[in-house]
Amino acid sequence: MSALHAERGSGAVAELVYRARAVLALFWSDGYGRFGLCVLCVFAAVAVLCPWIATHDPWVNNTRPDGTLARLNGPSAAHLLGTTYYGQDVFSQLVLATPQTLLVGVVTAILVGFIGTNVGLISGYFGGVVDDVLMRITDFFYAIPFLPFMMVVVSFFGTSVAVVVGSMSLVFWRTAARVVRSQVLTVKQRPYVLAARASGAGHARIIYRHILPNVLPLSFLYLLFGAAWGVLTESSLSFIGLGDPNRLSWGLMLNQAFATGSIRYAWWWVVPPGAALTVFMVSLYLLGRAFEEQSSPRLRQQ
Amino acid sequence: MRRYVVQRLLQNVFLLWVLITFMFVLFRLLPGDPVSIVVSAELPEQARAALRKSWGLDRPLGEQYVAYLGNLVQGNFGLSFQHQKPVWGILSEKLVNTLVLMIPATLLAVVVGVAGGMYFGWKRGSRVERLGVLLPAVIRGIPSFWLGILLLMLFSYGLDWFPIGGMRSIGVEARSPWQLYLSMDFLWHLTLPLLCMAITSLPEPLLIMRSSLLETRGEDYLELIEAKGASEARVLFHAARGSLLPVMTWVVHMFGYAMASTVVIEMVFAWPGLGREIITAVGTFDYPMAQAAFFLISLVIITLNLLLDLCYGLLDPRVVIA
Questions:
Q1: Mind listing the pLDDT tens digit of every residue in chain A (302 residues)?
Q2: I need a labelling partner for A276 at 20 to 30 A (CA). Which of A69, A238, B81, B96 fits?
């Protein structure tokens, strides 16, 4: 009996590995997907290696040789991307904000994917009252003015990343839930699902063993979108001034550049964080597009 | 059909009520004392209590809630703590400011996006197709506030073509409400924020149009029209017609969403709109103001979605039966 379980367990792992490799191969077969994958790998590498890449302490107010504050120095050998209004090294801030950004993206993506997929599965599978209640909750999160809601949440619970990521995910699952649900509605009518039910399989088994594999591609797509929305929203909040002022982030960098009036000419402070955000999100969107295109044969024929 | 309409209507009224209640509770839970924002801390406790009483904050929460709902039903949003004036007067002005920015920006985005989507979906050739994928992805990736800052750096600080923010120059007084929004000075101030917003809303109509044209391209009925000797423009028109509904759906969804998220663009361009008012209201514990703003945005989102649902019901009878 236990041998059987072990075999089944390793089977699940093998299947997971197989699926992961299939997804990677799918990205790789598409030019844009390849680009997105490479860019994300670069970001991940920077995130891991950032303590060695950064040239300065990001919070230290550097001084010029004559002892004055190195305020808004242009790029030079000493400061690769110049300095901020407070004499801080822009390059080091940019590099050291990377792991935080990736973390926000990954955690939001997982939460959005997890909640959205499960709500969609349960709502679509059981139908009736369960479906009604869950879909009205989804409606509720659609009707909430999102950014203002985040402002209130942040001013209530504080500006820590955990709060920001948690409350973003609390809202963003709505889209995934709706899309997954409508997919479940068609999948649950398929003969093999009906056969599984007729042979006495439990609800959980039917949902997670027979239906889930068919909606997994959709969930994965919303995982990517969740990461992009999460990073964008977090940086927007930081830009408005509702982020954690003691945590490096690209949004915070732009907030300070804007608030100090440095956008007048300090392009070396303004361009890098925005460009980093843009490249990161573009690579996610390109991955999403590659995934959509490659997994729907109808588009692929075009 | 009537049953469908009534059912949807009731559902949405209920949803609105849930939202209102949620907001009410949320704001009462917020730590912080609205009185301390308006008056100095030296004011004796008695005077503070009097102020709290005049705002009705001394009454139990349930009573406050009932009074709030009663006023809301009569269209009365109450007095702003911060401004000491009726909320509606201030809010309606901010709402108009946001709408004058949003409506033209949305229209521009739809027109340019649909045209661009038609171009990228119809034209063949590897270069066009590559651009059709990259352009929307890049625009989608640019955070709106960063785009705004870049526009300011280039056109205001660099070239000095446009003002650095605000809605009109200092000292410009309008003699009539129309002049407020139709003067050259206003349009001059409107240009950059409008551009910023239009560009960031461009990708969705473009992508919708592009992918639906890619799907219809090569359908039999188009070949028939072509065979009848119709011009390419006419064939394109027939191919594009089917995707106008998805584009309209997007406009409706986007409009409510954008009302809540213009705040970022309003911040960059110092635009005195709804979003910035909400930030101030939340920051100063101005409950009546913040709640009214939330209520308005939610009302717009819900109403637009309801109208969309009803239109679908009208166009496609299957929706009503399901």
A1: 444 444 455 666 777 788 778 888 878 887 788 888 899 999 999 888 888 877 777 787 777 777 777 777 777 777 777 887 787 888 888 888 899 889 999 999 999 999 999 999 999 899 889 998 998 899 888 888 888 888 888 877 888 888 889 988 988 999 889 889 988 888 888 888 888 888 888 888 888 888 888 888 888 888 988 999 899 989 998 898 888 888 888 988 889 888 887 788 888 888 889 999 999 999 999 888 888 777 765 544 43
A2: A69
CATH T-level topology, domain A2-301: MetI-like fold (1.10.3720)
- A156 shares contact with chain B (CB less than 8 Å): yes
Which candidate from B18, B140, B153 shows the least CB-CB separation from A263? B153
Rounded to whole angstroms, how far apart are CA atoms B216 and B240?
8
Interface test with B, best of A238, A282, A287, A293 (most B CBs within 10 A): A282
* A239: three-class secondary structure by DSSP: helix
Assembly ipTM: 0.84
Asked if A146 lies within 8 A of B217 by C-beta distance, the reply is: no
User: Which positions ≥6 away from A243 have C-beta within 8 Å?
Assistant: A159, A164, A234, A237, A249, A251, A252, A255
Domain chopping of chain A, boundaries? 2-301
Q: How far apart are CA A109 and CA A278, in angstroms?
A: 18
Q: Within an 8 Å CB–CB cutoff, is residue B249 touching chain A?
A: no
What DSSP designation does B165 have? Answer: S
| Residues of chain A contacting residue B30, judged by C-beta atoms under 8 Å apart | 152, 155-156
Q: Do A282 and B141 touch (CB under 8 A)?
A: yes
User: Which residue's structure tokens are 């949440």?
Assistant: A153
